[in-house]
Amino acid sequence: MSRLTVALLAAALPLSAVAAPENYTIDPFHTFPSFEVNHLGMSNMRGQFTKSAGKFSIDHAAKTGTLEITVQTASVTTGDTDKAGRPRTRDEHLRTPDFFNVAEFPTMTYKSTGVKFSGDNPATIEGNLTLLGVTKPVTLHVENWKCGANPMSKKEMCGGNASAALKRTDFGMKFGVPALGDDLKLWIEIEGYKD
User: Fold this and answer.
1) What Å distances lie between residue 75 and 14, 18, 89, CA to CA?
2) pLDDT over threshold 50, residue 5
C-alpha cells in the first residue's frame, strides 16, 4: 500500500476515531473520598478525607481511561472534634494505629488498572487501593459522569461519583471487629479540570 493511500485513509477517518486521551487534574475543592461503617450493629458512621490530589485521563474514542488519586490520611474527619470529657475525639482515634495509623502511613492511594465503558462514559474502574501498606484490588462503580465547560470559569472539566465496597480487615484494620463493622462503603466524588 502506498504512502499516499495510507495518508488518504487516515485523512478520511473521523477525528473522534483518532482522538488522543485527554488529561485532567483533580480539583481538590470538589473531590472528597468518604466512607461509611456500621457502629455496634446500630447506626452507620460516616467520615471523609478533606485533602486529596490526583489525575485522570479519558479517551472517549478508544473507550479507555486512567485514574490516580492520593489521599492524606490525617485529613480524616467524622465531625467529632470536641472531647466532651473523653480522653480523645473519634477523629483523633481514627488517626492512631488502631485505624489509619497516619504517622506511619500518611497517604493511601488508588491507581486504576483498567476502565470499562457503558456507552460514551466510564462505568467501572478496576484498580488497586493501597491502605496501611497493603495493596488490594478494588472496583469503583461510576455514576453520573459528565464532561463539559464549567458554567462559571468556562474551563473544560469532567466529573462524577464513584463507589466501592470492601472489608477493612483485608488491609489489616482489625480494631473493634465485629462491634465496629468490617464492611466499609467507599465513595469518591471526583471533579477535574482539563490540563
Assistant:
1) 46, 41, 14
2) no
* Grid cell 495509623 in the structure block, residue: 101
Residue 4: predicted pLDDT? 45
* 193 CB neighbour count, 10 Å cutoff: 16
Report whether pLDDT(19) > 90.
Answer: no
**Rg value, the chain, Cα:** 21
pTM of model > 0.90: no
Q: Which of 84-88, 155-159, 160-164 has the lowest mean pLDDT?
A: 84-88
Nearest to 193, CA basis, from 141, 153, 144: 153
Domains and CATH numbers, the chain: 19-194 (2.40.128.110)
Please name the helix (run of DSSP H) or strand (run of DSSP E) that holds residue 193, with its range, or none.
strand 180-194
What is the CB neighbour count within 10 angstroms for residue 54?
Answer: 20
Average confidence score pLDDT of the chain = 91
CA dist., res. 37 & res. 55, Å (int): 27
Q: For residue 123, which of 109, 144, 138 has the smallest C-alpha distance?
A: 144
Residue 48 has pLDDT above 60, yes or no: yes
CA terminus-to-terminus distance, the chain: 38
CB 94 within 8 A of CB 76: yes
133: three-class secondary structure by DSSP: coil
What whole-number distance in Å separates Cα of residue 32 and Cα of residue 47? 10
Whole-angstrom distance, CA of residue 166 vs CA of residue 142 = 16
